[in-house]
Design goal:
By secondary structure, the chain is mainly alpha-helical. Helix content is about 65%, strand content about 5%.
Amino acid sequence: MYKKSLAVLLFSCFASLSANAATTESTKATEAPAEQVQQVAGQINLNTADAATLEAGLLGIGPVKAQAIVDHRNSNGPFASIDELLEVKGIGPATLEKNRDRISVN
């Protein structure tokens, strides 16, 4: 009787773990299309976007860096190329590469 109860208990534990893993995988599957939709929706124009748009749409860009991009644009004129983003203090090559497909200067 003890072995049967233990077997039932173990089966219940494994079943719940399996269900939890399936739910996690299902959640991950639904997140991917939303990420793709954001990329398809369009790029952020460095020459027209406000700080809030830059912060929300770019990876690794918080409020301070977003405002620095706007300030740089206001001081130096529009960005002629995406690579000019490297001139903004606090933005390095890694940040630029993470966001290259998300930004434009047109």
